[in-house]
Amino acid sequence: MGGKGKLRRWKLPFRRSSSITAAVASKNEPPKEFICPISNSLMFDPAVVSSGQTFEKVCVHVCRDLGFTPTLPDGSTPDFSSVIPNIALKTAIANWCSKSGSEIPNPPVYSDIESIVRSLSGSVASGKEESSTSRASEKTPILFSRVGSELNPGNSYSPSSSEESVIANTTPFFPFATRPVCFSPSSSPSTASEFFPDEASSNYVSASSSISYSEDENFVTKMKSLDVYEQEQAVILLRKTTRSDEEARAVLCTERLLSALKELLNSTYAAVQTNATAALVNLSLEKCNKVKIVRAGIIPFLIEILKNGFEDSREHAAGAIFSLALEDENKTAIGVLGALPPLLHLLRSGGRRSRQDVALALYHLTLVHSNRIKILNLGGAGVLLGLLKDREVAARVILVVCNLASCGEGRAALLDADAVECLVGVLRIGSELNSESTRDNCVAALHSLSYRSLRFQRLARDAGAEEVLREVVEMGSERAKNKARRILEDLSGP
């Protein structure tokens, strides 16, 4: 109150504080990871590329079509050799739009993105004109610069430094399989995991068999049915049709069939999930289907089966990943999407057939350096060395060990995990428990570990490697003899 008993009205200036305004504005601004680095717009269809970054899918296709590789703000250049839909990020963007009241982004127009990419490539080109030709050739980003060195099969390594030159001498020896162990052709007896149609569905099978393989609509309709029985009969027929018919595999592997099949991989019914996964294995056998299947977003569903699927389904999921990993373009993508941890777990605890497929899957995946690092970070060096005592998978596991020993990080991790003593122990057992290829690859792994390593020499002497290696020189294969001689020369040197 004032001095005369009257109420005094305070006049307070009501003004929104700058901090409140900024907070409100920030709610309407999308997180930075939702924005495509090329289009600078909220992504409609985000996709992960081989080097791990996420872009608008159309932007990646435009860059590949124009042969342009952008330089990102952090100075790195992405690798566009494989493109995998980022379903989790797409869902997160949709949820953010719903909560913030923002509009869901529309599909970008190819021509608009092309204009943006051409302007970026033009600015890069104009900057190069100001420098000399030699300097420009040093800084120009080269499309797929890493693919040639990382995604080559084991027989054609191209080391990038003198340190990696040892790789050329450690190519594993093994009669490689190109089909998963879980795959059984029509001539072989059925396995316990196979579910054949009963008598009531035989008419449906025979009627559908006469349909042209170009007509995948029949399969898709049945697979999308709400009736579980219809779903089961559809995947059983698809599995049976694609088991031995190569033409059917190629023609039926369409985008809409893969989309329908993908949903059934999540089925809570064992018969549906198992036969859907087995049918996917059959489709993956054709080389022309391998990249198509990965790009359809199948890998996350296979990973979920490896973690929580039915036992028979896990076996087929391991076989599918092995089959898909045979394609160079898929190797990095499979690692980026998180398949390595469940594969490593299944290698230790799975059944015989699934473990064999997992071991070969890991061999092909670790031909890529980025996957070798991921395996090492998961503690894979110790796990793999421990499995060399297991006759069931030792011949395949040693291949993965050879791949790890081909890089500096792998050699350090293997030496820390007592690889020298372990490998010498395998050689000491001799031919009683190990095949010739297993022994040869143990020598190859030791040869890689010995590369410029005084620590190896000390560990080898402590493990009694000289005696074992002399026996290899006397009775081993020519390939093993040559490597054993080189190791002995290093051990006897100054």
Describe the overall structure.
With 494 residues, this protein is mostly helical. The protein folds into 3 domains: 32-108, Zinc/RING finger domain, C3HC4 (zinc finger) (Herpes Virus-1, 2-Layer Sandwich); 213-378, Alpha Horseshoe (Leucine-rich Repeat Variant); 380-493, Leucine-rich Repeat Variant, CATH 1.25.10.10. 59% of the residues lie in helices and 2% in strands. The chain has helices at residues 18-28, 57-66, 87-100, 110-129, 133-139, 147-150, 202-209, 217-223, 228-242, 246-252, 255-264, 270-284, 287-295, 299-308, 311-325, 328-336, 340-349, 352-365, 369-377, 380-386, 394-404, 408-416, 419-429, 436-449, 454-463, 465-475, 478-492, and strands spanning 46-49, 54-56, 83-85. A 3-stranded antiparallel sheet has the order 2-1-3.
Q: Which structural category fits the helices and strands?
A: mainly alpha
The end-to-end distance, rounded to whole angstroms, is: 100 Å
What is the gyration radius calculated from CA atoms? Answer: 28 Å
Percentage of residues in DSSP E strands:
under 5%
**Would you list the SSEs in sequence order as H and E?**
HEEHEHHHHHHHHHHHHHHHHHHHHHHHHH
| Largest beta-sheet details | 3 strands, antiparallel
- What is the CATH architecture annotation of the largest domain? Alpha Horseshoe
- What form results from the Cα inertia axes? globular
- The residue ranges in which pLDDT falls below 50 over 5 or more consecutive positions are 6-25, 125-173, 186-211
Strand order in the largest sheet: 2-1-3
The number of helical elements comes to 27
CATH superfamily of the largest domain: Leucine-rich Repeat Variant
Query: How many strands?
Result: 3
CATH classification class of the largest domain: Mainly Alpha
Tell me the count of domains: 3
The helix content, as a percent range, equals 55-70%
Mean pLDDT across all amino acids: 78
How is the CATH topology of the largest domain named? Leucine-rich Repeat Variant
Pathway: Protein modification; protein ubiquitination
GO molecular function: ligase activity; ubiquitin protein ligase activity
Keywords: Ligase, Repeat, Transferase, Ubl conjugation pathway
Protein name: RING-type E3 ubiquitin transferase
